[in-house]
Amino acid sequence: xxxxxxxxxxxxxxxxxxxxxxxxxxxxxxxxxxxxxxxxxxxxxxxxxxxxxxxxxxxxxxxxxxxxxxxxxxxxxxxxxxxxxxxxxxxxxxxxxxxxxxxxxxxxxxxxxxxxxxxxxxxxxxxxxxxxxxxxxxxxxxxxxxxxxxxxxxxxxxxxxxxxxxxxxxxxxxxxxxxxxxxxxxxxxxxxxxxxxxxxxxxxxxxxxxxxxxxxxxxxxxxxxxxxxxxxxxxxxxxxxxxxxxxxxxxxxxxxxxxxxxxxxxxxxxxxxx
Length: 274
Known about the structure:
globular
């Protein structure tokens, strides 16, 4: 147990890496800018129920943080974290050495996935505080013209829990990208690139039910009104089925992790002589 704890701490310390730090700052910046622009739009249109107004209350800021953490900002954060925890080991050549002392690949990948998911949850909680502070500042700046709209605590916590499944998907995809590209930059680009490249397909009606973008939008219930404000992602398709979409996301997580694990089978420091 002591060895497991120290190894986990060692993995978490690897997050103090330029890739993870830049990703964290970028994700926070994306969320704050989107929220600020949305808040200004709400004031301009005098829409008292605009989703951007969530952030002026604690429960609303938590819901907004969950939505951002489960969509574009969360993807950027997780890509940077996995690049630091795993991609950097491949790039530095330490992954094969690690297998000499800890040959159980499944346990190693599981620990790195758990650490990445834990850091993703930590990011959402930090983002909650950042959005709440910025929301309070925006509310004070707007004065009496701003009417604070707030979801319930139950809805906010529910969104947070749903965002964790989204982050599980991001972690699985980033681990797969790290194994295939074996570099820091490759991990980030392999995680974010395909999501951006496939996004335009969400406008093709016949393909929508088969796109992970739509599955995640249905699972998180991403409404059109909150797009680019409370989340940076494609909006909720009319064919959404939250339970089905959640099952599809879990299946994609399992497949991605299985492929990543299979791709590491040939990793070793010492190979038998021919």
